Amino acid sequence: MSLPSELEKSTIFAKSDPITPDSSSADEGYVLDAHKLGASSTLKTTCDGSIILRPQPSDSPDDPLNWSQWKKHILLFVISVTAFLPDYGGAMGAVALIPQAIDWNMTQEGVLQALVGNVFVIGAGGLISVAFMAYFGRLPVLFWFTFCALWSAAFCAGAANFTQYEAARVLNGFFWTVAQDGGLVFINDIFFVHEHARKINIWSFFIILSPYLGPLLTGFIIAASTWQWAFALYVLMTGLCLTAIICFGQETYYDRRIAPESQPLRKSHLQRVQLTSATGINTTLSIFLQPLYGFGPRQIGFFYFIPIVATILGDACGHWLHDSLAALCTRRNHGRLDAEARLWVIYIATPFMLAGLVLLGFALQHGWP
Hints:
- The protein is mainly alpha-helical.
- The protein is 68% helix and 1% strand.
- The protein is built from 13 helices and two strands, in the order H-E-H-H-H-H-H-H-H-H-H-H-H-E-H.
- The chain has helices spanning 5-12, 69-103, 108-124, 126-136, 138-157, 162-190, 196-224, 227-248, 269-273, 279-293, 297-303, 305-332, 343-366, and strands at 30-31, 336-337.
- Strands 1-2 form a two-stranded antiparallel sheet.
- Helix 2 (69-103) runs parallel beside helix 7, helix 2 packs parallel to helix 10 and helix 7 (196-224) packs antiparallel against helix 8 (227-248).
- The relative contact order is 0.14.
């Protein structure tokens, strides 16, 4: 339902502003250059007065856009670390399936079925978790999904047979999708549009790094102990994330169409928590590496070291490159930022990624050293 024109003008732009609501439509991007404002403008800007804040925050201290930088970034860190674990846990199975096949007298391809189910529900489960966040709120869904992920991770570590293990892996993947698929919801709630690129870069760094770091650490653990201990570490990490959510998690939904004095009273932190009851390649790589090169768990773990280095370097460059490109496009468009302006970085990276995938495919097919 669209807002009345009077309300839309009053909540987004002052009537005396030389910038009209149409000049900041979703189809045409956002006007961020504060120098385009008139002297009588009432739009809020950054502290240095150079950027128009989008969306415009209310005057309420409960508005997440008005929270302190410390509070925002602690929550961002908690969400990012939690988003790290789904693909970390999923990719662990790429190395763990070698000793698991021996323990359960199965082929590695047979054990891989549990991993396939886990990876599938990590993607499909996001449709449900995001819908739940929109209906029940952000924090309760994050808490309860993570709680169920902790229970299912412990079930994985203590599975007595493959049937139990497969069921636990599927459940774990489903519940762990909450921070990966809901992370953008939190970022959109607490940060302004001009801040999104760097904050998304931080959150996505943990996601991109996880499917490489999971097999690396798991390979070392299995080489020195058993695959159950690798999952025990995973359970510990999940428990730490749940503890961080209990201590630092915040409900970030706030309807700015409602006047601050008419907003419902915010519940206590505990009440808000209790309100409601590249991965595909990584996870199958061990099946190719072991027969071709005779790799064991430790060698397969080392194989993921180079992607970790590449992820760190790429993310460090992108942290500033995206904003620099956005600033350049904003100047060229007379103060307007179009969302697709950031896609130019992807255009540059795509040919290199495609060449790497093709080269990896030929190497595995022909057994190149």
